[in-house]
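Final report, closing paragraph on structural work. Over the funding period we assembled a curated collection of sequence-structure pairs, and we close with a single example.
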Amino acid sequence: MALTKEQKQALVEEYRIKDGDTGSPEVQIAILTHEIRELNAHLKVHKHDYHSQRGMMKKVGHRRNLMKYLVKEDVERYQKLIKRLGLRR
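Its predicted structure, as stored:
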């Protein structure tokens, strides 16, 4: 269920801004979105797994804070990112 090194590296390669970029908001949001989607699928099967539900809520909150930061810094990058990730905002 956890993200493998190869999956994480593929997400970094896809969403990075420049070479060597691993910590930009876009990369972090993409990784969190992937993890949230995996946890959401897990929770559809295991409805009473409250520990995983809490972990997912923490990831959602972290992603929300990163997205607030990105929209404050650069609206264009924010809009491109949510379109690429298929998020609702």
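The domain at 5-85 is CATH 1.10.287.10 (Helix Hairpins). Helices lie at 5-15, 25-45, 50-73, 75-85. We thank the funder for supporting this effort.
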